[in-house]
Amino acid sequence: MFFEDFEVGQVFTSQGRTITETDVVLFAGWSWDTNPPHTDAESMRDSRFGGRIAHGMLGISVAMGLASRLGVFEDSSIALLGIDEWRFTAPIRIGDTVRCRVEIVGARATSRGDAGILDRRFELRNQHDEVVQEGRIGLMVSRRPAD
Q1: Contact 66/98 with Cβ under 8 angstroms?
Q2: Less Cβ crowding at N or C end of the chain, within 10 Å?
Q3: What would the 3-class secondary structure string for 47-101 be?
């Protein structure tokens, strides 16, 4: 899809993805974020979460991956412009299955006119349809090429 194909109000919902023990362990390893909420099952057993939880940044990464798998942004994507107003509203637990809902909340042409800016509202929801993370992610996309 190109800039001209998007409309304010369009909603895209991804497939689900289950967050595994391996996801959390690997993310802790490559991010160096080994804080106890993610890596210490014993200390987290009696915590407010009742067990380990996934990293917040792992959730954002999964949301971006799920949005990519939609296939609607990939052919025209130029640049990610920023992550704004992102909130972590509930924990993501090992074994949760999340899906990403992306709504186009704004669209405008760039000043050069050769691309457009999409303002997208993301919601990462778990298997209980609870929003676990949400925010806005701007994306610059190509306009349709002239024939």
Answers
A1: yes
A2: C
A3: CCCCCCECCHHHHHHHHHHHHHHCCCCCCCEEEEEEEEEEEECCCCECCCEEEEE
DSSP code of 5?
G
Cα-Cα end-to-end distance for the chain = 16
For domain 3-142, which CATH number applies: 3.10.129.10, 3.40.640.10, 3.30.70.260, 3.90.550.10?
3.10.129.10
**pLDDT for the residue 113:** 86
**Is residue 145 over pLDDT 90?**
no
- Mean pLDDT throughout 26-46? 92
10 — alpha (psi -120 to 50), left (phi > 0) or beta?
Answer: beta
